Amino acid sequence: MLLTLPNRWNSLYDACSVLLQRVMDDDARLEAVNEVLRNEGGTNRTSYYGFDDQDKQVLQEYCKVMKPLANCLDRLQTEENAYLGVLLPTLTLMRVALEQARGDQALTYAKPLVRALLRQEGNKGRFNNRFSAMFKDLDLLMASALHPNYGMTTFNSVAPNMKEEIFQRIVKEMKALIRQETLLEERDNSQEMEEHEEVSADPFAELCDTTQADQEDDLEEDIKEELLAWKRSKEATLKKSHFPAKYRDQWVTLFIKYNTGIPSSAAVERLFSTAGDVLRPKRAYFSEDNFEYLVFLKGNLHLLKQKFKVPRGVDEGG
Prior knowledge:
Elements: H1 11-24, H2 27-39, H3 53-77, H4 87-102, H5 111-118, H6 126-131, H7 138-145, H8 155-158, H9 163-196, H10 205-208, H11 211-229, H12 248-259, H13 266-278, H14 288-299, H15 301-308
């Protein structure tokens, strides 16, 4: 049975979900749990007879409402594919699901929970109070627009009013990147031409040359066409091939610029938790080396299980 943890906001949902699946939906297990509750209820709970159908409905509605929030936290807490561009589409998905739940007429007990998640005192919703500024943050919007799993196609739901501004900003920054990387080549070519160039008979030829302006226009049109034709990828693991073929290196460079994640202490906190599981009262006299070895093994035990193909469900020990 999963237990709730104060430092994991979605742990209560996980615990209730497991309770429903493994206990409430199994009559034999439910009766066994109710028997334990009746026997250990004490004198203050002699009238308590365990879980009934009403309790089951409350838990079902709670899990139905909290599932979008728990899924959102799971996506944002993962250490794989942890890009900034994931944030706004994930929050949008959660908001849409909660708004649908608010209109669910089948809810009997969980309507106040939905209102608490979406609404606060005053006219502004709780979701808006917490996250509205993020949907106007140009860097976060750029991160989502440049992520192959989302792209510009998701802006109709994420931030429709900012779609054109982000589109133009991507074009502008892509032009700057391409021009910057070709500048050295142009300088080298110009130096070679100066060494062999004869004095022009027309001193105004350079002022009348429109080649550079035409190249700028062509480059801008190429970038716009690539951006409009860029289809979102459904693969979870990103690959370089998911980016537009033309100017691919520049697209990847711009993606990295905006999608580099903010450093988090979550991995270190998880290591401290693992160390606490290893260093128990009966193991207080470990040497530093042995303690380090055990923490290392505990943290990488999943790799050993993959190596030796240990069946799922086998206790990890420790």
